[in-house]
Amino acid sequence: MVSPYPPARDGIAAYAVQAVAGLRAAGHDVEVLSPGPSAAHHHLDLAGPRGALALARRARHYDRVVIQFHPDVFFPVPCSGGERAAIASALTVAFRAARDLEVRVHEMDYSLGRGSSPAAVALRMMWRAVPRVVVHTEAERASFHEAFGVPLARVALADHGADFMPHTTADRETARASFGIGPDELTFLSIGFIQPHKGFDRAIRAFAANGLGHRGCRLDVVGSVRLEEPGFLAHLSDLERLADSTPGVRLHTGYISDEAFDRWIVAADLLVLPYRHIWSSGVLERAALYERPVIVTRVGGLEAQAAGHGGATVVDTDADLADAMRVAADEALGTAAAERDDDWPFDPARVDRDAVMTEVRARAAASRGGVPPARDTGAADGRQARDAREASVPLRRLGPLSVPAPVSGRPGASILKSVVRRLTAWEVDPIVHQVNRLQQAVIEATERLGNLPKE
Amino acid sequence: MDRTGTIAFVPPRYGDEVIGGAEAVIREVAHGLAARGWSVEILTTCARDHFTWANEYPPGESVTPDGVVLRRFPTVLDTPRAERARYEQAIASGWPLTLSDQQRWMNDDLRVPELFHWLLDRSASYRAIVFAPYLFWTTFAGAQVDPARTILMPCLHDEPYAQLEIFHPLFSGARGLWFLSEPEHALAQRLFELPGNQEVVGSGIETPDAYDVEGFRKRYGIDGRFLLYAGRREGAKGWERMLDAFARAVRRHGLPFSLVTMGVGDVHPPADMVDRVIDLGFLPAGERDDAFAAADGYVQPSALESFSRTVMEAWLAGTLVIANGASEVVRWHCERSGAGLTYDDDLELEQCLLFLADAPEAAAALAAKGREYVLTNYRPDAVLDRIESTLAEWTENPSGAG
Question: Distance between CA A452 and CA A440 in Å, rounded?
Answer without folding.
Answer: 19
